[in-house]
Amino acid sequence: xxxxxxxxxxxxxxxxxxxxxxxxxxxxxxxxxxxxxxxxxxxxxxxxxxxxxxxxxxxxxxxxxxxxxxxxxxxxxxxxxxxxxxxxxxxxxxxxxxxxxxxxxxxxxxxxxxxxxxxxxxxxxxxxxxxxxxxxxxxxxxxxxxxxxxxxxxxxxxxxxxxxxxxxxxxxxxxxxxxxxxxxxxxxxxxxxxxxxxxxxxxxxxxxxxxxxxxxxxxxxxxxxxxxxxxxxxxxxxxxxxxxxxxxxxxxxxxxxxxxxxxxxxxxxxxxxxxxxxxxxxxxxxxxxxxxxxxxxxxxxxxxxxxxxxxxxxxxxxxxxxxxxxxxxxxxxxxxxxxxxxxxxxxxxxxxxxxxxxxxxxxxxxxxxxxxxxxxxxxxxxxxxxxxxxxxxxxxxxxxxxxxxxxxxxxxxxxxx
Length: 417
What we know:
By secondary structure, the protein is an all-alpha fold. The chain has helices at residues 43-54, 64-68, 90-99, 134-144, 154-160, 163-174, 179-184, 188-197, 203-217, 222-226, 232-238, 246-251, 281-292, 304-315, 321-333, 340-349, 354-363, 374-382, 386-415. 48% of the residues lie in helices and 0% in strands. Residues 1-113 are annotated as: Disordered.
């Protein structure tokens, strides 16, 4: 009868005996291969070899000529080579640095904390003009009328940044009692345009300027009819919300009705900040004042024409139709050609506002607008609002007919003797 070895449940197999080449006292993790490195030499032999190498004499590689040269004196310690103390040592080092006198020699020990020197550029010597008193400098600024003086240095700006100086300078730039002198001044349009483009010159400042000009020149007779029992000085002094330009804004439609101290030079260009958004009531009123005076923009030495086109492109999708009409008139007066994309933006993206589109088509007779644009005709045919689509098609056809008549008349006049 054969006997079969059966493992008894609950008893584990005896561990195998370790290999004979395994060194004593070390255990190997299962699965890790045995190392074949030779055992490291004892530490005593390594230490003896290192001491033997250190005890050998070094080879002198310095030439004799270099030894004969005089050595330079050591540089004094600077603040960059000074070690900074730890927080717990700050008090002790700070008291130690304060106790040392300033008469220490160069080779003396440098304190741990030194006062940081200020940069030499901050200690720039002021010019004689910058060292003048503020009152004298302000009078020089008003007499010279040099607008580059405040931006020359920060010291001059601090002394000239005053509300009284701003208003007085505006009176001297904007108001010229003598019309002949106003016309003969070649630099007056540029000065007025620079003043209008400054950051502080807004509608609120313009109202303060108008109030001071009324008190100084007495050239607004209808103000006495507006408040017969109260003087203008009392209105301005006791009522801070009194708008001296309120009635003028509602009634004035022509430049001849404007007081002389509010009229600008005929050649003064409109600054770029009044040709683009964001639009609010104060900016709206300021642009209206400039538009009433039939002012244009500078198209030769600036990029205001591009700014004007960008402002119209933004207005094509908004409800500021009146501002858009003013900008269109300014563009035509300045001989700026309105692009075809402006009409597309007003029709497709802006919903085809009738007043805006009609103004564009009216002034497009002076340009090269394409009236049979497929994008415009497709929008008019597919628009759910059939009345607005038919109105747009009628306007495009009528404008194209008027343009052909104008071209024919111009050719006939050119051929006639």
